[in-house]
Amino acid sequence: MNLFSDIRALVIDSLAAMQAEGALPAGLDMTNVAVEPPRDAAHGDMATNAAMVLAKPAGQNPRAIAEALAAKLAADPRIVTAEVAGPGFLNLRLTPAAWQGVVAAALAAGRDFGRSAMGRGVKVNVEFVSANPTGPMHVGHTRGAVFGDALAALLDFAGHEVTREYYINDAGAQVDVLARSAYERYREANGLSPEIREGLYPGDYLIPVGEALKAKYGTSLLDRHEGDWLAEVREFATAEMMAMIRADLALLGVKMDVFSSERAITASGRVEEAIATLRGMDLIYEGMLEAPKGKLPDDWEEREQTLFRSTAHGDDVDRPVKKSDGSWTYFAPDIAYHWDKVKRGYDQLIDILGADHGGYVKRLKAVVSALSAGRVPLEVKLIQMVKLYKNGEPFKMSKRAGTFVTLRDVVEQAGADVTRFVMLTRKNDAALDFDFDKVLEQSKDNPVFYVQYAHARVCSVIRKAAEAGIAADDTTLARADFARLSHEAELALARKIAEWPRLVEIAARGQEPHRIAFYLYELASELHGLWNRGNEETGLRFVQDGNIPASQAKIALARATAVVISAGLGILGVTPAEEMR
């Protein structure tokens, strides 16, 4: 049940009736007609912009349209009043029964309440994390992992068919550096002093890799030249790093559906195949780029290059796909990888990248546009940095990692649930401060605690009902006498519950899982407010002594709140709390 969609359907039907009567011209586009909560709750329960949207194409005064529409809407039994405001906005007040029905619907649907079919038949690939397999994941990867996983869950809840994917950057110079770094730890495991020279990875996390190399190879690699052992050690160390990354992701509750390898794509010849495909579209050519704007790099020289004509698909400049030595640029395997995703039949691609990849966005969009003939849109979500604090000071780097705070450091300090929720309390492109003291405090200012506490309070109500011999299972509660929910504070909570299906679609359409976290905080606030009023007004308490019908109606309202909180936390990947300790 989506009450906002139901009332919008009523508005559209009323407009259609006005067209049939000749009060409005035929052929009007109703796409932008919306029904939403008013900015000021004092104005009503819902508002529609129908008259404002249709006035110009209809060639009519917006207030005249609004007044005629108001008369139509007022005839519906769910509508108490329909009032025209300003130049033509229409404010609606609904009957208590309309909001009471939302409580019953939430209990009947359970955690499926709010699920949408808006994405039905749409296959979406969400590629996220994709950290180089050269060490443990850091706090920036943590935020990207949480955002990507929550976005995938949100799209799934909104009806899309979602694949979570990790692109392993296991080709190029960085994995050769990993191999050389692991080899030094292998030498250390064999009793020799490691030479962690500049440019190698210094973290202690490679010590177990060195020991594992010793267990497999003994001393047999010690006297071999680098050219003899590099490929074997590189493959071994990469596999060890990916095992570590998988374990870290599991610690955060993230599970990928697909792991794709850059090395495998490169070795398969798909890069050459992708470039040849673009060449066949006249999008690959030999040419020279203009000099970069501003101060020129010391090594700048004007020369002919193999270029992708990305300006034909919205980019600012064409992009090189080959280096001067004839090898592929970093961009070339990415072209092949995205072409592979297009060929797998996805209807939409989403890449989640660090903010430092902002300059990469247009070329990726251009190549996906070219290779899919404009059929498959690519959205790139950039993840801004996270600043960590503890005891009022910046949180220090991890000795184990060598240069940064790891995902494991954060989760071990704060817990997976807290980490995930807090990482979603800001939009992905806004910087985030993560203060270990604040995220663990038990107060209204801590959104994680506040939402969890609301769910735990409802669980305590259910337990209290059981002790009082009141049946409080969802089936029984769904049949409660909801007319007993007549107080404005109770109806306000029901109205907030009614926003959930609409909020899911808005968040999914905008690819903004942080909206779920914000909404859950607002819903928890309504629940806590009603609870606190019950301390002073006994008639608002969820369990009414000696009055089972009234108790079941009020418990049903609390339980419906918990159903939505549980569903919302499920999207965020957070476990609902049944009690707070």
From TrEMBL:
<keyword id="KW-0547">Nucleotide-binding</keyword>
<keyword id="KW-0030">Aminoacyl-tRNA synthetase</keyword>
<dbReference type="InterPro" id="IPR014729">
    <property type="entry name" value="Rossmann-like_a/b/a_fold"/>
</dbReference>
<dbReference type="InterPro" id="IPR036695">
    <property type="entry name" value="Arg-tRNA-synth_N_sf"/>
</dbReference>
<dbReference type="InterPro" id="IPR008909">
    <property type="entry name" value="DALR_anticod-bd"/>
</dbReference>
<dbReference type="InterPro" id="IPR009080">
    <property type="entry name" value="tRNAsynth_Ia_anticodon-bd"/>
</dbReference>
<dbReference type="Pfam" id="PF05746">
    <property type="entry name" value="DALR_1"/>
</dbReference>
<feature type="domain" description="Arginyl tRNA synthetase N-terminal">
    <location>
        <begin position="5"/>
        <end position="94"/>
    </location>
</feature>
<keyword id="KW-0436">Ligase</keyword>
<feature type="domain" description="DALR anticodon binding">
    <location>
        <begin position="451"/>
        <end position="580"/>
    </location>
</feature>
<dbReference type="InterPro" id="IPR035684">
    <property type="entry name" value="ArgRS_core"/>
</dbReference>
<comment type="subunit">
    <text>Monomer.</text>
</comment>
<dbReference type="InterPro" id="IPR001278">
    <property type="entry name" value="Arg-tRNA-ligase"/>
</dbReference>
<dbReference type="GO" id="GO:0004814">
    <property type="term" value="F:arginine-tRNA ligase activity"/>
</dbReference>
<dbReference type="InterPro" id="IPR001412">
    <property type="entry name" value="aa-tRNA-synth_I_CS"/>
</dbReference>
<keyword id="KW-0963">Cytoplasm</keyword>
<dbReference type="InterPro" id="IPR005148">
    <property type="entry name" value="Arg-tRNA-synth_N"/>
</dbReference>
<comment type="similarity">
    <text>Belongs to the class-I aminoacyl-tRNA synthetase family.</text>
</comment>
<keyword id="KW-0648">Protein biosynthesis</keyword>
<dbReference type="Pfam" id="PF03485">
    <property type="entry name" value="Arg_tRNA_synt_N"/>
</dbReference>
<feature type="short sequence motif" description="'HIGH' region">
    <location>
        <begin position="131"/>
        <end position="141"/>
    </location>
</feature>
<protein>
    <recommendedName>
        <fullName>Arginine--tRNA ligase</fullName>
        <ecNumber>6.1.1.19</ecNumber>
    </recommendedName>
</protein>
<keyword id="KW-0067">ATP-binding</keyword>
<dbReference type="Pfam" id="PF00750">
    <property type="entry name" value="tRNA-synt_1d"/>
</dbReference>
